[in-house]
Specification:
heterodimer, A: 416 residues, alpha+beta, Rieske Iron-sulfur Protein, Naphthalene 1,2-dioxygenase Alpha Subunit, Chain A, domain 1, 2 domains, seven-stranded antiparallel beta sheet, four-stranded antiparallel beta sheet, 10 helices, 19 strands, B: 103 residues, mainly beta, 11 strands, 0% helix
């Protein structure tokens, strides 16, 4: 009898009540994880890989990831941007080991195979052997041994890539609503890199996706938000799943006038500590840079979350490593025409997020402790019924509609 | 100031076989093409630790053993990537059966 490991996904069924229930086994099954990588990251999706301003000059590159697969984003000599898999075509070793730099070509450390900025194989040591011995067969064709080349799309200073030659255009994949919000977040497209944060979360990637689509927790877990009025359950709010749950928008309004006001909603929340203050209150005093009194955060499946907290703008890149590990990589940005005051404000307010962020550190702790519990009870089931059981858009923070939307889309794509 | 350096007996430079030597600290390789002898720099401009003379002679082209950058034996000009810069070509003359290289 064959006793080898069988995917639990083949043996288990999604609970009744569909989108309003989440079975815990989806967070710990390695086979399911592999399929998710194929479907969501390597499939017919567009993945954020970097900012165009990170690779300004010819030969400049940055290392990035699409799911578990490493890629290189590189500026070609003619100014176009190429994205190639960071995997030597020879033996599959990691070709480039640096996070960024400027090169004329890429040479693999293992056997020194060399590739141009488009990923074409330039040459390899001892193609013709030495002293009349060894070497490649005479019909070895360099043209057939280049790096895997990805489709690339650049829009408003952001670079996206897909492994799928037949994926729809980036704009169609994003949809009108998300495309418009990306345009809002990237302004004239002349972005300026402000810095990075990276952290390894010991949890399944979907726990982070849920977290970033969950306004309900934001007013409860994140006492910092509430205490300083950056996000309040009593302000106007929209939670909008788009394209059948693929992407998710969370739009809140911010008003300096009501930021510290108390009423019956905030009175109920023990985490509102109205006597707290900061040495430097600029941290929580954003200026209304988009002129719409809104803070709009949105999630673009599979890989990124656009962050606007105060004047901290960042792209949070979700990089799954295994069924129980996920890297989070923040790329903080501003605009070339920001004045010094604005740039400093963005950098200061970036401390809200990141591995030790005043707000984000709460999520890291919760998710790190949630993963082992989920793994310990794979047959358990979560309930996500706040705000109903469907995934219609809602005008409240007290809703899990975006999580239900995600799982509606997820189940459809995964056939679960 | 360049000057002429005696390098090697001319009949030691054989067709199809690079002949590497050092003149002072400068690595040079001599090649015979038909009746003529040529001298070019012997370090690949793509990977300067690699000797071109360890490579493969194909007609009047020397191909680097490392990544197949190609250079003209007659002129030192790069004619195939990944190298982008030429190697130096040195004037030679033969007197009394000895090859002299000017550098």
């Amino acid at each position: 009898m064959n006793t080898s490991t069988v995917s639990t996904a083949q043996l288990r069924r999604w609970p009744e009540q569909r989108d309003a229930r989440i079975p815990a086994w989806i967070y710990s099954d390695p086979d399911l994880f592999k399929r998710e990588m194929e479907v969501f990251y390597e499939g017919s999706t567009w993945n954020f890989v970097g900012l165009a301003c990170e690779i300004a000059e010819p030969g400049a590159f940055k290392r990035s990831w699409i799911g578990t697969r490493p890629v290189l984003v590189v500026r070609d000599e003619d100014g176009t941007i190429n994205v190639v898999e960071n995997r030597c075509a020879h033996r599959g070793s990691m070709l480039c080991w640096k996070n960024n730099g400027v090169v004329k070509d890429f040479t693999c450390p293992y056997h020194h195979w060399s590739y141009d900025l488009k990923g074409n194989l330039l040459g390899l040591p001892f193609l013709r052997g030495a002293m009349g011995k060894g070497g490649m067969p005479r019909d070895f064709a360099k043209g057939e041994h280049g790096l895997r080349k990805l489709r690339v799309a650049e829009r408003k200073g952001l670079v996206w890539a897909t492994f799928d030659e037949s994926a729809p255009d980036l704009e169609a994949y994003l949809g009108d609503e998300i495309a418009a919000l990306i345009d809002r977040a990237t302004g004239n497209g002349r972005l300026k890199l402000l810095g990075y944060n990276r952290q390894l979360l010991p949890c399944n990637w979907k726990l982070y996706v849920e977290n970033s689509r969950d306004p309900y927790h934001a007013t409860l877990l994140h006492s910092f938000f509430l205490t300083f009025g950056l996000l309040r359950a009593d302000t106007a709010f929209k939670a909008v799943p788009t394209l059948g749950g693929r992407h998710a928008i969370m739009a809140s309004t911010y008003s300096a006038a009501t930021a510290s006001e108390k009423n019956e909603v905030t009175q109920q929340l023990a985490s509102l500590k109205s006597d707290f203050s900061l040495q430097d209150m600029d941290m929580v005093r954003p200026v209304d840079e988009f002129g719409d009194s809104s803070m709009i955060n949105f999630s673009v499946l599979p890989s990124v979350f656009f962050q606007q907290h105060g004047n901290s703008l960042a792209i949070r890149h979700v990089i799954p490593k295994s069924e129980s590990q996920t890297e989070l990589s923040w790329t903080h940005y501003g605009f070339e025409d920001d004045d010094e005051t604005m740039q400093n404000r963005r950098i200061k307010q970036a401390n809200l997020m990141g591995p030790a962020g005043y707000v984000a550190v709460d999520d890291s702790e919760v998710l790190a402790l949630m993963q082992p519990v989920a793994q310990s009870a794979p047959d358990s089931v979560q309930a996500v019924e706040m705000g109903g059981r469907d995934y219609a858009p809602q005008e409240t923070m007290l809703t899990e509609t975006l999580i239900r939307g995600f799982y509606h889309y997820y189940r459809e794509k995964m056939g679960l | 100031m360049s000057e002429w350096h005696p390098a090697i007996q001319a009949d030691a430079v054989a067709e199809g076989t690079p002949c590497p030597l050092l003149i002072g600290d400068t690595p040079i390789a001599l090649y015979r093409l038909g009746g003529e002898v040529y001298a070019i720099g012997d370090r690949c401009t793509h990977e300067p630790e690699v000797r071109l003379s360890d490579g493969f002679v194909d007609g009047d082209v020397i191909e680097c053993p490392m990544h197949q950058s190609c250079f003209s034996i007659r002129t030192g000009k790069v004619i195939g990537p990944p190298a982008r810069e030429d190697v130096h070509a040195y004037p030679i003359r033969i007197e009394d059966g000895t090859v002299y290289v000017e550098l």
